[in-house]
Amino acid sequence: MKRKYVRKLFNTRKPYDLEKSNDVFCQAMRENAMHHYKQCPDYKRILDEANFDPKSIACMDDLINLPFLPTLYFKHHELFSKPLWKMPIKATSSGTSSGFKSKIAMSIGDLWRGFKMIKRIFSYHKLWSIRPVTYLIFGYQPTKHSEAGIMKTAYGFTYVAPAKKRVYAIRWSKENGYQVDLDYMKAAFIKASQQRTPIRTIGFPAYTYFLLKEMKAEGIKLQMAKGSKVTIGGGWKQFYAEKVDKNEFYQLVHEVLGIEEKNCVEFFGAVEHPILYTDCDYHHFHVPAYARVIIRDPDTFKPVPKGQMGLINLLTPMMEGTPLLSVMTDDLGVLHYEGCECGELSPWLEIIGRVGIKDITTCAQGADDLLSK
Predict the structure, then answer these.
(1) Domain span at residue 134?
(2) In this structure, is residue 94 part of a structural domain?
(3) Does residue 208 lie in a domain region?
(4) By C-alpha distance, which of 95, 350, 97, 354 is closest to 241?
(5) Does some domain include residue 123?
(6) Is the pTM of this model over 0.90?
(7) Residue 353 located in a structural domain
(8) Which CATH number characterizes residue 184's domain?
(9) Is 97's pLDDT higher than 50?
(10) pLDDT tens column, 228-258
């Protein structure tokens, strides 16, 4: 099946022009829904049971009625619209407390669309660089022992600027499996501060915060090379009680590493929704043209009035390998429409926290379990 509108959407040059991309987005969702309806029997059954015809998608309002799949569903069921052997990338979340994991597969076309999205968003936020950097990664060392999506995302990020060296906080050993070693990262920061090569951090904010707080308590104050950046993603998860105000976090980064707030960047995303949300200069997650967000009432699942809090429902027509058109997260959030001081008109998503579903353990929380030990 030709994917004319999907291709057109991911060729959008202005990554935050939602108004002009609405029609294309709607048609791309229709194309994508029809593709998965024909190619994935389980997805067809889901739509049929909801009495939803993908051909009925004619305007943006119709997307409200498109059946959404909770992220928890993917932890118990595999949904693929292409044979696995035809899809080069398989990624998983870290799983539930019972050991269940979301398994997502990406086709070559999915990867190409993802690359074009990243290329434009990173260009917009001026993250590309030809200068080699040292990556200090608060995440999993890539091994054959894990297919965690966040691990692959972190590794892929190390191509945004040439990697002179990669240092991982969660390292693998045959004796102990994955173990967190923040002392190793502390030594890496100190060594990096003595060199001219800029650094880029990647990973969970809880790890970054706990290490920098410890370094500050020890009186360690460093000055990283010009061009250094602190990038974080994955959320605070089970350390939500320890979560600090963003201004406090960025002040700590400046005090310990000498990196200014303008060089601190946060990302939001999910294995079940492989769209990149990058914060602006005012640390707001503007919705990119390649996705849309619906905030739903936790009880009725109907869209809430503008500015009210509810469950975050994420939509994108990006994937042809796995039907991820409309995914309901277990995150609570607010979609703000009043504009932003950065000048971008796209609404921005504020993530409030996570609802209390005991069965869910995300990549970040799985890593946090290691840290708490």
Answers:
(1) 116-269+361-372
(2) no
(3) yes
(4) 354
(5) yes
(6) no
(7) no
(8) 3.40.50
(9) no
(10) 999 987 665 554 545 667 888 899 999 999 9
